[in-house]
Design goal:
Keywords: Activator, ATP-binding, Cytoplasm, DNA-binding, Nitrogen fixation, Nucleotide-binding, Phosphoprotein, Repressor, Transcription, Transcription regulation, Two-component regulatory system. Pfam families: AAA_lid_14, HTH_8, Response_reg, Sigma54_activat. This is DNA-binding transcriptional regulator NtrC. InterPro entries: AAA+_ATPase, AAA_lid_NorR, CheY-like_superfamily, Homeodomain-like_sf, HTH_Fis, P-loop_NTPase, Sig_transdc_resp-reg_receiver, Sigma_54_int. By secondary structure, this protein is α/β, with parallel strands linked by helices. It is 49% helix and 11% strand. The protein has 4 domains: 79 residues, Rossmann fold (3-Layer(aba) Sandwich); 174 residues, P-loop containing nucleotide triphosphate hydrolases (Rossmann fold, 3-Layer(aba) Sandwich), CATH 3.40.50.300; 77 residues, Helicase, Ruva Protein, domain 3, CATH 1.10.8; 57 residues, Homeodomain-like (Arc Repressor Mutant, subunit A). It is built from 19 helices and 14 strands. The longest helix has 37 residues. It is extended, with a radius of gyration of 31 Å. The structure holds adenosine-5'-triphosphate (ATP). Adenosine-5'-triphosphate binds next to helix 7, helix 13 and helix 15.
Length: 445
């Protein structure tokens, strides 16, 4: 390994031109010249060369300028020499961003994909491994938020501790506090024993708060207090329990919107959003699709499913698809292909068929979703109209029963026996209903 020093920008560039060096440690003041402003030449020649900037000009401006150059680390003087040595060691390990990605995969963490967008995510993960900063992972459903949280834990300095995930959307609102903070015996009806909550279970490790946007207000207040004080008390408990837990939260909701609507505490948002990581949707990183698809084909084999390979055309079709359900949708589709396709080779036609069948299901879902929206709107109107003799239930039923009867009669060509059969009700009941609503069946012919 070559180690050299120099005192001017000219000497620096001449030395680096030899290509013998793996790392540059530079001062900001190099003689009369500026060690940062002149880095463009260095970076143009070797974009992956790790650079460590040291400076006596301890201003925010210098720190910002250093980070803008993509410097691996910045040390204001005076600095701890051991710390510098440690950072040099780290900087030398992953020589390129490609290797960083490899490390994440080699460590048995199935974070697949080397698109530039994922490289940014990996770089960010790498910066979070030796500290306990709170992380907020943002991204659409199925983009891999939980996987990233696990990676931060498993690769980081808390790896010997537990990784405890909890999904706010999956727990009934009134149980969330007890789930998170634990409870003492008799704290509420049904609390026959005392129990530790997720916070206590995560001691020494990481607590992953998934779908944090769904956390009810009262639990938010308690969480904020816990984060501010570093202590919790169980529901119904008296003593305080000291916490040693890293918090990683995730959401697919727009936080600013939630705050505006008064559904999320702004102060809590700033507490958890110390370092945001945004996971890009899969449709914006199509170059990751082949690696992901092959990864899931291998995964399927490891789970005892038959071995299949995608043809080039099949793979291209997958890459062109706009994955609204992101990686989860791709994973499900690959598994579906593996179990349904007869041939070992997965052709373009096989892929197309499965994509189309998924979309027809989706179409049904949308029609139903639209229907529910309309139902909600009708109920809203009925509720607003309070001065009515009949109950809301009766009025709502009338609203839906009438068009149903008219439609079935129309389909039955006005034939009441047929209509009653179609509806699966007695003919007399149908006749009674038609009289009630004043529907004339002859009009339906
Ligand atoms: N980069 C990736 N490499 C390999 N597998 C991935 C990747 N991203 C996501 N997956 C897989 O896709 C599925 C969905 O990922 P995950 O549950 O982490 O998404 P999520 O963003 O947390 O979703 P949600 O918001 O719905 O909870 C998982 O099976 C996960 O293992």
């Amino acid at each position: 390994m070559a180690v050299d020093s120099c005192k001017s920008v000219g000497d620096r560039d001449a030395l680096l031109a030899s290509g013998k060096y793996d790392l540059l440690v530079t001062d900001v003041g190099l003689g009369e010249e500026d060690g940062i402003a002149t880095l463009d030449v260095v970076k143009a020649r070797d974009p992956d060369l790790p650079i460590i900037v040291i400076s006596a000009q301890n201003t925010l401006n210098t720190a910002v300028r250093a980070s803008e150059t993509g410097a691996f680390e910045y040390f204001p003087k005076p600095f701890d020499l051991d710390e510098l040595v440690e950072v040099v060691r780290q900087a030398m390990k992953p020589r390129s961003s490609e290797l960083q990605a490899e490390n994440l995969e080699e460590d048995n963490l199935p974070l697949v994909g080397r698109s530039p967008a994922m490289q940014d995510v990996y770089r960010m993960i790498a910066r979070l491994l030796r500290n306990d900063l709170s992380v907020l992972i943002l991204g659409e459903s199925g983009t891999g938020k939980e996987l990233v949280a696990e990676a931060i834990h498993t690769l980081g300095h808390r790896k010997a501790g537990p990784f405890i995930p909890i999904n706010m959307a999956a727990i009934p609102t009134d149980l969330i506090e007890a789930e998170l903070f634990g409870h003492e015996k008799g704290a509420f009806t049904g609390a026959v024993n005392s129990a530790a909550g997720k916070f206590e279970q995560a001691q020494g490790g990481t607590l992953f708060l998934d779908e944090i946007g769904d956390m009810p207000m009262h639990a938010q207040t308690r969480l904020l207090r816990a984060l501010q004080s570093g202590e919790i008390n169980r529901v119904g408990g008296k003593g305080l329990i000291k916490l040693d837990v890293r918090i990683i939260a995730a959401t697919n909701q727009d936080f600013l919107n939630l705050i505006e609507q008064g559904k999320f505490r702004e102060d809590l948002y700033y507490r958890i959003n110390v370092v945001p990581i945004e996971l890009p949707p899969l449709r914006d990183r199509a170059s990751d699709v082949p690696a992901l698809a092959n990864h899931f084909l291998n995964l399927a084999v490891s789970e005892g499913l038959p071995k299949k390979v995608l043809t080039n055309e099949g793979m291209e079709l997958l890459s062109r698809h706009s994955w609204r359900g992101n990686v989860r949708e791709l994973k499900n589709l690959i598994y579906r292909l593996v179990v349904t396709a007869r041939e070992e080779e997965l052709s373009e036609t096989a892929v197309r068929q499965i994509i189309q069948s998924e979309h027809s299901d989706e179409h049904d879902d949308h029609t139903l979703a639209g229907f529910s929206d309309r139902v909600r709107a009708v109920i809203g109107d009925l509720m607003a109209d309070k001065d009515q003799a009949n109950s809301l239930y009766v009025r709502a039923l009338e609203k839906f029963e009438r068009p149903m009867l008219e439609e079935v009669l129309r389909k039955a060509n006005g034939n009441q026996i047929k209509a009653a059969n179609m509806l699966g009700i007695n003919r007399n009941t149908l006749r009674k209903k038609l009289t009630e609503y004043g529907i004339d069946p002859s009009q339906s012919r």
